[in-house]
User: Fold this.
Amino acid sequence: MTMSTAPRFWRHIPQRYNLIGTHCANCGEYYFPPREICPNCRRDTVMEDYKFEGTGTVVTYTVIHNATEDFKRQTPYTLAIIQLDEGPRLTGQVVADPDDVEIGTKVKSIFRILGKDGEKGIIYYGTKFVPAESSA
Amino acid sequence: MPAGIVSYGVYIPKYRIRVEEIARVWGDESDVSGNLNVFKKSVPDVDEDAVTIAVEASRNAIRRGRIDPTRIGVIYAGSESHPYAVKPTSTIVGEAIGTNTDLTAADFEFACKAGTAAIQACLGLVSAGMVDLGMAIGSDTSQGAPGDALEYTAAAGGAAYVIGKDDLIAEIEDFYSFTTDTPDFWRREGMPYPEHGGRFTGEPAYFKHVTNAARGLMRKMGVSPEDYDYAVFHQPNGKFPLRVARQLGFTKEQIDQGLVVPEIGNTYSGSCLIGLAATLDVARPGDRIFAVSFGSGAGSDAFSIMVKDEIDELGGGVPLVRDYISDTKNEYLDYAMYAKHKGKLRL
Assistant:
């Protein structure tokens, strides 16, 4: 038996597959990753799960040329901070020619392999992004 | 009560390689493209596999039919390239499309016809009233060994069909299957690439099974090719479906709309189902579609499909098959980049 990262990955499946965050019904704020307590409302928090639409805007980005072992085959690739339309920001890969990504590019979510736990371990699936006009 | 298709969706990766580029690398100076009637094939991105393709196709089906995914009680995912030997593709799809946990799921494998076998199994559960809706998927990132004839056509893509009894966009009037033990194509456990019987994959395999399934269904229903507006046959290359259509009495006009293999190659479990989707993309209420899959090993499933008025109510801004095929964002790869995408280079 190998030490597995499966439980840690499994706990994050809702966020990774479907961008499940939270929404405070008291103040209207959205959170990703999900929070249990709304920092605005504290004890008045009325938190509910919320599935983000997956559309957003590139706030800033960097192009990775020298990657870690798992990502060597994908270089050069674009890693961006994306502001979801509902407000929260997250870091995600934008699957596109780096020349097609700039600050302000509209993006939408797609389902891809995020990584693999070696040859024998589990495959991590989850959300990446593409420019919004793509049919992908 | 009739059962059939409530919605459908496809996904085809955006990368392409030209058949001529593969022929150039292996020194094949014959007119490979012309001989196969396949000019390019789809190639998955480095982070795509049969699961990600199944999820994207399923999400397109959900969006197109505005389906509540919690109504889905069964998911059967057909592929010959499931990324796990043990661990279902179908459970990942279920989570990714947001089904409830009161769900039965399993993976199917029957070479290129696992997706149509999944449709038949869903039809059984739906018709028996045991589930409300079923999701049947055929998706593949098929493999061809470097230099093997399969490499010219083995492509990537998938389709997902929501099967139910209410709000049908197309009724599946009947189906008929023809199955034998024919070792024309196989892949042993742990082997990265399939083997095949060369010309043995033709007459004793593809043509025997497709024609027997097609004639069996027409005999069962008392219909003939003239009763259909469109026909779709499994597309391992661009020649076989043309020839089998002619043998059965279907015209080129009937199969043109669903013939996608010259542009994207053979998407295996997705092949017949993407061809059917391309046909549904343009079909009008009252149109009748004849569809026959083929899976090596070997078997064929033939379906008679009647398009209903509800097809005009589909929407969701979901790409059509031809949108994926003619997308100006499609990128062409040379053989080196193709080998990298397919993981043919072991680092």
Summary: The mean pLDDT of chain A is 94. The longest helix of chain A spans residues 6-11. The radius of gyration of chain A is 16 Å. The longest strand of chain A covers residues 106-116.
